[in-house]
Specification:
This protein has about 350 residues and is an alpha/beta fold. Helices cover about 55% and strands about 10% of the residues. The protein contains 14 helices and 7 strands. The chain has helices at about 20-30, 45-50, 55-70, 90-100, 105-110, 110-120, 125-130, 130-140, 165-180, 220-230, 250-255, 260-275, 280-305, 310-335, and strands at about 5-10, 35-40, 80-85, 145, 150, 155, 185-190. The longest helix has 26 residues, at about 280-305. It is elongated. The model has no long low-confidence stretch (mean pLDDT about 95). The structure holds tryptophan. Tryptophan binds near residues 12, 136, 140 and 156.
Amino acid sequence: MLFTDRVLTGIRPTGSLHLGHYTGALKQWVSLQRRYECFFLIADYQAMTTHADRPAAIRESIREVVLDFLAVGLNPKKRNVHFVLQSWVPELNQLYTLLSMVTKYSWIGQNPTIKTEKKLLGGDMTLGFADYPVSQAADILFVSFRLSAPFSSILVPVGEDQIPHLELTNRIARTFNRSYGKVFTECKPLVGDVGRLVGTDGQEKMSKSLGNAIYLKDDPGTVRNKVMRMFTDPNRVRSDIPGNVDNNPVFIYLNAFAETRSQQERVQEYKERYERGKVGDVEVKMFLVEVLEGFLEPIRDRRRKAEGEDIIKYLRSGTRRARVIAKATLNAALEKAGLTYTDLNTRR
Ligand code: TRP
């Protein structure tokens, strides 16, 4: 099969993946592998922007992320699906060096995602943190080339917070292309339909550091406990008064995970009863547990099988394919930028 577009996306290995990763990213990735050549990059260097003092955690997370990938149905046995380990592709570092030469320092500081992360980190940033968006541009733009021509388009399925990075990537691509000739293909963001999932506590985002996440690998008891402790409508102090289903985490999850027709009908029914003060939180939560179990059980099953698989082999073969393409892109870029010196023996 011939694929006309490429998909590239990445994730930092800083922990196991949770429901928020699923709705915001993985779900869409799984369906993209049917139609495109896909590169799923595990960005271990980028993980060091926050975890440089925890190499064991990064190592552990690489394994976890691969298992989670396999569990949700990403399939590296398909010829068009590649799991890539960032640090195993030295061409990315080379490309990054070249791209950094056409990137204005001032472009980085304007990036809102960097601003937020800077605040979270507090204090003294590393140089690696400050310019990881340029490294990420290399992560993306390396798929620009097929054999000897730029590719038609690069699709990057990501969460909304990554948009500034993709804009920067395209700014860098355009600047390079204008200065030296066309090498890089601009990328297009693909933002999923559900997008970011709120935490079990109703905070904007599900995340490990906030302790409000339900993990794909959580066992049924853990899922049940987390759901039972979930926030609902804060103004509904008794279950016989009308409640609000919008901005209510329990209903947000039901909307996201009720899959079958009958589940969706029951969600509708619960919403109506909830708004009339005719159902208690506990009953709705028990239903959410049921819905989540229906979703998670097959995922846990595949994960159990994946535990015994040769994970390194998947990473090696995906990385091998990435390097072939990265080399082609890098060579084209070096040549256009004038960094080929095979004729140095003679004056030009
Ligand atoms: N910055 C992304 C995140 O934090 C991870 C990432 C690294 C990425 N390289 C990428 C995403 C390339 C898209 C493309 O989630």
